Amino acid sequence: MTLTNVLEVDGVVKSFGGFKALNGVSLKVSQGEIVGLVGPNGCGKTTLVNVVSGIYSCDGGSVRLGGKDVTHLPAHKRVLFGVNRTFQVPKPFKDMTVQENVELAWNFGGRHGSLRDSVLGTTGLEDLKDRVTSTLNTAQQKRLDLARALATNPQVLFVDELGAGLNPSELSDLAEMLRGISKLNVALIVVEHLMGFLEALTTRVVVLEAGKEIFEGNIKDAIRDKKVVEVFLGG
Ligand code: ADP
Hints:
GO terms for molecular function: ATP binding; ATP hydrolysis activity. This is Branched-chain amino acid transport system ATP-binding protein. This protein has helices spanning about 45-55, 75-80, 100-110, 120, 140-150, 170-185, 195-200, 220, 225-235, and strands at about 5-15, 20-30, 35-40, 60-65, 70, 85, 155-160, 185-190, 205-210, 210-215. It is α/β, with parallel strands linked by helices. A hairpin with a 2-residue loop joins strand 4 (about 60-65) and strand 5. The model has no long low-confidence stretch (mean pLDDT about 90). Adenosine-5'-diphosphate binds next to helix 1.
């Protein structure tokens, strides 16, 4: 069986001044796959998310979405090619209802795709759709962030530390939700510090250190890998 690569990142370099935050990172992700992106603080995870989603332009390498080269497109255009992300600090419009926020995202995403009608159900927000966003609790706001990203009909969705600050039952709900999203053929790249959460969720993890990939594979092998252990334990 050949799986389609919806995302192909090839040798991406991103510098801030003279400092290379990403130093030749490559990554391929196939349709509906769930990949974990891990590594110590400052290793370049968020920079990679920003470079792929188009928030930052890169200084070398290329980004292809669904086979199309989007390396030089800005973020709002890349959304139309099927990539989106959640934010570590969710930024919905607080005075709008849940449904209005999702509608707005759908408009932003070019008003296409079949996910629109299932977004509230998939993210467990159906019963909260008329609530004003500012009245939601943290876990609900995170679900809304996921719903807004999903409403743009992504093929590739970066989920950036959505697990932080959630209790075990909320975490297990989140994992279930993400599994449901991947079944809709959306590839998920989950940036997360919580290894247990990733172990239950991902088929593959990519470990970054100092802007370079040092491991790619199954999480059980990652936690036995000498280099990965050294990076995480500072050995
Ligand atoms: P992570 O998400 O893995 O914690 P980041 O991608 O946020 O790491 O950061 C990687 C490195 O790039 C860090 O050293 C960080 O200080 C630096 N960096 C990230 N964004 C900027 C920026 N806008 N300007 C300057 N340096 C940055």
